[in-house]
Amino acid sequence: MAKKFGVVFCDIPKVRQQNRLDRAAFWRKVKAEHPEILMAKGCYIFGLRNGNNIKPWYVGQAAKQNFQKEIFTPHKREKYQNCIHENNGQPVLFFIAALTHKGSKIADRKDNSDVIDWLEKQLILKALAQNPKLENIQNIKYAKETVVPGFMHTPKGKGTEAERQLKKMLSKK
């Protein structure tokens, strides 16, 4: 049976004059606008918005704990704060929450951990393509170092016929 996910997007307020996240204000906003997210599980992406562009900076998962317990653990807050201090932009967070099989409400089920783990890896690969300075440490070594001409980190130049055909086969139409 298909696993379904829903997406929720929220700005993360900063404490005035301190350039740090206002977690209390964030959770108040989430609780008011999307209360079901607090106890949900799934993946999340922290990013910085500049105008219409959003750059991903960290991809995580909440599979063992819910979003509310997982997103602002101390080592993650440190990553977010480093991004805020070293880059310009409005902090944002995407929640990608597991849904019930019918897709109508948030699921809080332990049997989603495998698909959440898989989804996190896929999101990391996409985010890394958008931002090579992604703050993730796990699950990115091979994504940064593996070279498969025509597919991943293709060296500059014309390439072989086989490499061009591989690229053509795997490219979006």
Summarize the structure in words:
With about 170 residues, this protein is α+β, with helices and mostly antiparallel strands. It folds into two domains: about 5-140, no CATH class; about 150-173, no CATH class. It is built from six helices and six strands. It has helices spanning about 25-35, 65-70, 75-85, 115-130, 140-145, 160-170, and strands at about 5-10, 15, 20, 40-50, 55-60, 90-100. Strands 1-6-4-5 form a four-stranded antiparallel beta sheet, with helices on both faces. Strand 4 and strand 5 form a beta hairpin. It is globular. The model has no long low-confidence stretch (mean pLDDT about 85).
Task: Give a quick precis of the structure.
With 173 residues, the chain is of the alpha+beta class. Helix content is 35%, strand content 23%. The model has no long low-confidence stretch (mean pLDDT 85).
Notable features of this structure?
173 residues, alpha+beta, 2 domains, four-stranded antiparallel sheet, two-stranded antiparallel sheet, 6 helices, 6 strands
Number of strands: 6
Q: Which sequence of strands runs across the widest sheet?
A: 1-6-4-5
Low-confidence stretches: none
Give the overall average pLDDT.
85
- Give, in order, the helices and strands: EEEHEEHHEHHH
- How much strand? 15-25%
Number of domains: 2
Number of helices: 6
The coarse silhouette is globular
Please give the radius of gyration in angstroms: 18 Å
Task: Determine the N-to-C terminus distance.
Answer: 28 Å
Structural class assignment: alpha+beta
Largest sheet: 4 strands, antiparallel
Percent helix, as a range, is: 25-40%
